[in-house]
Design brief:
Blueprint (H helix, E strand, L loop, with lengths): L1 E5 L5 H4 L7 E4 L7 E4 L15 E4 L9 H5 L5 E2 L6 H16 L2 H9 L5 H11 L12 E5 L3 H12 L3 E5 L5 H6 L5 E2 L3 H7 L2 E4 L13 H4 L6 E5 L8 H10 L2 E6 L4 H4 L4 E3 L8 H21 L19 E8 L4 H11 L4 E9 L2 E8 L5 H8 L4 E8 L5
Parallel strand pairs: 1-2, 1-3, 3-4, 4-5, 6-7, 6-9, 7-8, 9-10, 10-11, 11-12
Antiparallel strand pairs: 13-15, 13-16, 14-15
Helix pairs in contact: 3-6
């Protein structure tokens, strides 16, 4: 029986992927094998020693101590692309909010008094101050062409916009999905200099903190729009406010409002609605539940942010998995211990990601505790799991 600790409410569609005859799922549970969460801040908690994996029903993992868990041999799973349509739709809504002055117009109407002909007269008298522009007259820059960025770019193109994208780490899979009509920027500075509406879909890491700063805002045409549905720290709030005051920006649409930002009537702040749809929450929960189950039962790693993708078909053999430092002769040392125990390797797969690696080994016989202890004693081995035979999984 696997024990799963939930730190947030997880969509029932995801939890239903974990069979009740082999999984116990609860918000309070002792010695959990895994943790499932959404927005809970794990930086403020002590992760139990029993935990083998952490799964976030969402894309970003800033609320999880990823590096610390990695060096305990704990993979962190997320759900890339599961909320892509939800975020894409909100970005398109943000483009329309900014281009048609919808928030300002709504606020104006809500403040009107009177009724009938008097109200109609006031409505008509005020509408001139909310004249907007149509999206086909604008160029959208898309920073980050992952699952979300590609959908945003393709949809904006279908709306008649000129679209320019930039992502130096774009995958082959996403390249196949991207419309041929999306132009390629040579650099980030080239991107911001060629667009008058900019949306970003990148993670918040040290390298992306304040990536959109005063210098880059200065490259954009006057009256431009910034949309931020990624993370607040990617954009320098102080620089944005100055650009709004100077007319360099006409609007800043963000899912990450702050008190300083909300002081400006040119900021359209939303309460982090990017993935807040029933469909997205369900999709994310199903994806991480499926991948968590594959890991716990078969040692397979898919969509981990700190360990490599490792998927080896399960045969009728005794399976071991090892998380280890990516150093020379690790596989050799593992093989030697197994050979000394009289075990023959039926299949083996080892993959690395940065300074970490992960190994799956299928063996022709059962493994003793003494052999497991010898494997754990190899310098650089972080975690050893004995998954037994297929019929035991």
């Amino acid at each position: 029986m696997y024990k799963i600790l939930t730190l947030n409410n997880i969509s029932v569609e995801g939890l239903d992927r974990l069979p009740r005859d082999s999984y116990e799922v609860a918000s309070e549970i002792q010695h959990p094998d895994a943790i499932m969460l959404r927005s809970f801040n794990m930086h403020d908690m002590d992760t139990p020693e029993s935990v083998l994996a952490v799964a976030r029903a969402g894309a970003g993992v800033n609320n999880i101590p990823v590096a610390a868990l990695a060096h305990r041999g704990i993979p962190v799973f997320n759900a890339p692309g599961a909320n892509a349509n939800a975020v894409k739709e909100l970005v398109i809504a943000g483009l329309l909010l900014a281009s048609r002055n919808l928030c300002a117009g709504w606020g104006y109407v809500n403040g009107l008094e009177g009724e009938g002909a008097e109200l109609n007269k006031k409505v008509e008298a005020g509408k001139k101050q909310f004249v907007g522009y149509e999206l086909p007259s604008r160029t959208l820059g898309v920073l980050g062409l992952g699952a979300i960025g590609v959908q945003v770019a393709n949809t904006a193109l279908s709306l008649g916009m000129r679209v320019i994208g930039f992502d130096p780490q774009m995958t082959v899979q996403r390249a196949w999905e991207l419309s041929s009509g999306v132009e390629q920027a040579r650099s980030l500075d080239d991107l911001v200099g060629r667009c008058d509406m900019l949306t970003m879909h990148i993670p918040l890491v040290d390298a992306t903190k304040n990536l959109i700063n005063a210098e880059r805002l200065g490259l954009m045409p006057n009256g431009s729009v910034i949309l931020n549905f990624s993370r607040g720290g990617i954009v320098d709030n102080k620089a944005v406010l100055e650009a709004l005051d100077e007319g360099k920006l006409s609007n800043y649409v963000t899912d990450f409002p702050s008190r300083e930002l909300m002081a400006s009537d040119k900021v359209i702040g939303l309460p982090h609605l990017g993935a807040s749809t029933r469909e997205a929450e369900s999709n994310c929960a199903v994806m991480v539940a499926d991948n968590l189950r594959k890991y716990l039962e078969h040692g397979v790693i898919r969509h981990s942010v700190n360990y490599p993708e490792v998927d080896m078909p399960r045969m009728d053999a005794h399976r071991l998995t090892l998380a280890n430092a990516n150093v020379p002769n690790m596989v050799g040392q593992i093989s030697t211990v197994l050979a000394d125990a009289g075990l023959n390797i039926e299949d083996l797969l080892n993959k690395s990601r940065g300074d970490l690696a992960y190994t799956i080994v299928d063996l022709n016989g059962d493994v003793t505790e003494d052999t497991l202890d010898r494997l754990r004693g190899i310098e650089g081995v972080l975690n050893v799991r004995d998954l037994g035979r297929l019929e035991d999984a």
